[in-house]
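Re: that backbone. Tokens:
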């Protein structure tokens, strides 16, 4: 019995060794076939990022505005500053005092002498900007330039040897990679949240003219995070946090950041030109799979020869694409050899180009691949540098109308042309004394209103000021004033 027991124990040991060997071989095979999981330490990235991410306080002072409203036919007494003809059932203009507005956001110091990148919506319309560093130092900031299309802005504080964040390459980001969102949500200074890159080149339809190729992340981004840093595990800036998508207004799963591949070009242009030199291909279109899905809904079977790329809905006359021979129904599949699967990827690529740059476009027509070279143009249809015009281009001096002029002419706002020099106003036939009431359908109440109108028009597709106003005699007039860019 003892001998049998020894044999039994020996057999059990042999079986155990066999199972152990099999498990070892299996474990070894798994180790060889899969990368070993490593714990992610985000403390280094946080330490690098926090000193360079700032809190931005926004202040817009109270202003007097003139608004148009329906006249009350029973209101014969006007104690509230109405202009018009009460009791006649027409329109009345009323001066209203807008409340003081305050807000807050974040920004990222990108140079030791004080250049800071943030979102356009964080600083747009501000009369005062106060920047607070992680070490509680405060600075007043001025706006260098803004770009509504990408929702980016460049501001500047006067400082030396300021902490900065190294700019990384967002193109190297991989879906699933760990990132940090650093900012000041809900005025909670120096907050760090962690997540992964959930998607790249995401479009969410902020506005029809926006350039969108967002990095999507599940790192928590809330109100106040706007303009803050999206940082990789090396402590490098890879994106500027821009917005969240939520049904509640608070973080509910995903935030979106503007990649540094877009930011770098915008910052360089704002520094050099004061406005972004945007290269246009001159098409409207949609992702191929979206177009095919729409056709399916109409019970149409479409075979374009590919399910990836950009379906061209229309081509602008005189555009880069038009001159190169692209047509409605073509599908763009690559640019300069880089595969393009959706519109966001094309926008991101073109965001790094300037008017006058040449690109090679690969496209499908009738399921056959073709290639063509084209020269990119600006929004105005040429390859010139687009500059922000200022009031000097008008060739005039201006002042706000006074209360007597408002009563005499029965108007609520306007700017009087005090002097005419050489410039576009003189060329258009506008003379001294003319009162400018509207420019491009925007009411003119202050010199700042006119400056903004000139700036916006000078960089638009149609660089013209459409001016409405009245002469001191009461005669109304309308002028179209082209702006000349050097």
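Recovered sequence:
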């Amino acid at each position: 019995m003892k001998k049998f027991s020894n044999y039994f124990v020996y057999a059990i040991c042999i079986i155990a060794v066999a199972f152990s060997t099999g498990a070892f071989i299996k474990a070894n095979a798994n180790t060889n076939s899969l990368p070993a999981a490593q714990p992610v330490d985000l403390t280094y990235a946080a330490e690098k990022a926090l000193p360079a991410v700032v809190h931005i306080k926004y202040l817009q002072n109270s202003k007097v505005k003139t608004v148009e409203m329906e006249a009350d036919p029973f209101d014969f007494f006007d104690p509230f500053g109405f202009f018009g003809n009460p009791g006649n059932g027409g329109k009345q203009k009323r001066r209203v005092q807008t409340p003081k507005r305050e807000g807050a956001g974040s920004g990222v110091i990108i140079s030791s002498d004080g250049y800071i990148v943030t979102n356009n919506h964080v600083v747009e319309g501000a009369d005062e900007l106060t920047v607070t560093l992680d070490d509680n130092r405060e600075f007043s900031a001025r706006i260098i330039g803004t770009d509504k299309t990408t929702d980016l802005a460049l501001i500047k504080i006067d400082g030396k040897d300021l902490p900065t964040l190294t700019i990384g390459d967002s193109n190297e980001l991989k879906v699933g990679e760990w990132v940090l969102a650093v900012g000041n949500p809900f005025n909670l200074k120096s907050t760090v949240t962690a997540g992964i890159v959930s998607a790249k080149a995401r479009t969410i339809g902020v506005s029809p003219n926006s350039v969108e190729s967002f990095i999507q992340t599940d790192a928590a981004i809330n109100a106040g995070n706007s303009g803050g840093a999206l940082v990789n595990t090396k402590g490098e800036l890879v994106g500027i946090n821009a917005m969240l998508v939520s049904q509640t207004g608070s973080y509910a799963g995903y935030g979106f950041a503007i990649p540094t591949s877009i930011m770098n070009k915008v910052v360089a242009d704002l520094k050099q030109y004061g406005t972004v030199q945007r290269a246009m291909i001159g098409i409207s279109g949609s992702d191929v799979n979206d177009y095919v899905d729409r056709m399916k809904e109409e019970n149409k079977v479409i075979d374009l020869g590919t399910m990836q790329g950009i379906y061209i809905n229309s081509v602008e006359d005189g555009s880069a694409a038009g001159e190169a021979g692209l047509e409605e129904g073509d599908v763009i599949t690559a640019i300069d050899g880089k595969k393009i699967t959706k519109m966001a990827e094309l926008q991101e690529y073109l965001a790094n180009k300037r008017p006058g740059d040449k690109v090679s476009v690969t496209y499908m027509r009738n399921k056959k691949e073709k290639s063509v070279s084209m020269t990119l143009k600006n929004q105005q249809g040429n390859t010139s540098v687009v500059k922000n015009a200022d009031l000097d281009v008008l060739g005039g001096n201006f002042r706000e109308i006074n209360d007597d002029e408002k009563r005499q002419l029965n108007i609520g706002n306007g700017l009087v042309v005090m002097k005419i020099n050489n410039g576009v106003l003189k060329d258009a036939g506008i003379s001294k004394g003319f009162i400018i009431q509207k420019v491009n359908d925007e009411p003119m109440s202050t010199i700042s209103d006119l400056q903004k109108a000139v700036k916006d028009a000078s960089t638009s597709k149609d660089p013209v000021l459409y001016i409405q106003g009245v002469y001191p005699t009461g005669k109304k007039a309308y002028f179209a004033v082209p702006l000349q860019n050097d």
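Residues 1-32, 73-88 have pLDDT under 50 and may be disordered. The radius of gyration is 30 Å.
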